[in-house]
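Aim 2 progress. For NADPH oxidase 2, the working sequence is reproduced below.
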Amino acid sequence: TWKWVVGPMFLYLCERLVRFWRSQQKVVITKVVIHPFKTIELQMMKKGFKMEVGQYIFVKCPAVSKLEWHPFTLTSAPEEDYFSIHVRIVGDWTEGLFNACGCDKQEFQEAWKLPKIAVDGPFGTASEDVFSYETVMLVGAGIGVTPFASVLKSVWYKYCHDATNLKLKKIYFYWLCRDTHAFEWFADLLQSLEAQMQERNNAEFLSYNIYLTGWDETQATHFVMHHEEEKDVITGLKQKTLYGRPNWENEFKTIAGQHPGSRIGVFLCGPEGLADTLNKQSISNSEADPRGVHFIFNKENF
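Predicted structure tokens for this construct:
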């Protein structure tokens, strides 16, 4: 037995040593941004740090806990000169980080007063393959939208610098939220992308659908009255907010009809129940003919 155990144990110890050495490298917090709905953004820099879209890191803040490591998806793009995470305040550790960064104070926080941060990573996820497809469906639920912030930023940088070599031609973006608060910190990015795509006369490149799943049409009556206005009254986007849950069967059939003979990547960051639904739809809407349309399902969960 020991012959089978020694090899894997040696590799495991090597990995732990590399991760320990990597987590001891100095990390500098360059900016702390407070977003609505008790969400903070930490922008950081670390020597030799390289990332790809959709990857995640483990973060430790000794001022809060000397032993706890927590995973966070990177929300910055590889083209930016820093890396960032968005942290929603929902528990004791995130509350401690919120206070340690001075976000509970009104006055300006000096940089030297910010807590020390240890970072281990980055680690790969399925979202890295998004540029391998010409057409993709991105589905985020709640705070699960964070990896797609990185994807959409990177797409924009690549599109601006060399659009002809960008294999990705069409993005269908779905964001499911229970209430309106979660829109506030992410809508700015969508508004910027929407405006810039229109300036370049390529508004069809990004098709997005935002759903308020915690509301029904009765609760949304007031906003439906303003449906004819140029911009949505909730998000400020030209695309109107939808209510309830999407009919995934219709969505898949519509996309399949618009892109016959294509390999379409389906990427999800959300709960297991939604993952099962999208996986079944990806299978049922893929054709047996190799030359037909095929949906390739990818997911990540924490």
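The longest helix spans residues 2-23. This observation will guide construct design in the next reporting period.
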